[in-house]
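Quick start: read one record
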Amino acid sequence: MTTDPLRTRSLVLDADGIPLSALVAEPEHGEPKAVVLAIHGRGMRAAYFAGPAHPDTSLLTLAADLGYTVLAIDRPGHGASAHRLPAGRLIADQAATLHAALTDYARAHPTGAGVQLLAHSFGGKIALHLAAHWPDNPRLPLLGADINGLAQHYAPGAWDRPDDLAGGGRLNWGPLSLYPPGTFHAARALLTPVPALEGRELATWPARYAALAARVRVPVRLTIAEHEHWWRLDPASRAALTAAFPEGLAHLVTAHGAGHNLSLGHAARPYHLRALAFTDDCRTRAAHPGAQAQAQAGAAAPVLAAV
């Protein structure tokens, strides 16, 4: 299977009057199994998921090859909305705006079994809020959420350090050997100023994580990179990540040979394949709700313990 960047197209969605730029990749034949809503992290744009340095790292084309539509949207305050929202929006408002953009897309495009969230880092905060507050809409149900690069408690001093997204900084990248040649040059095209409002809720995130997780009612897969330095990840902190969700609903995996920017590294393809396998599992659970308890019991099986 090969990836083809020409199958990824750009569009602008209407999010209740706010223009949001996006990238979309759709299956070549037939309707999609579901729509994967991909949500990028802080200081990046939607092209993070498009394999900017190597086609094997593209979530968009891989997922389309496997029968899914991927909709990667520039979050509010980024891309086409930057001039309208120069300060960005707070987490809850970003979630509402992304859902409005997704609804706009769904008006004219098939969505299959529903929506799967796949989010990175700060985008995971938006995804967790969406999962906790998803509107009850049988035409656009939420299947599950796959979140990487996000935890509950920041590592000591992490948010006080300057961002160094394009320069190979330890927080955002880890060892440089984890990434294909040309990644840091390609990453410069992804960079965007961080809207001011995105820093306002940092201190409240630990309590907010717990409150949001308790409300989630769909399966959640949390992935932490082996070389992750943004978050406190001692054994007790790791255990608390899944314990915050209703029992059996969430599981935690480790992406070996990966740094924080997981979808840009050599580990991107195996991570994306496992994330899409999880999406298949979420579709099965949604189609056969009577088997959900049994599926949840096996969610933390050893075969899913690492990527």
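The helical segments are 59-65, 91-108, 122-132, 183-187, 205-215, 235-243, 268-287, 292-297.
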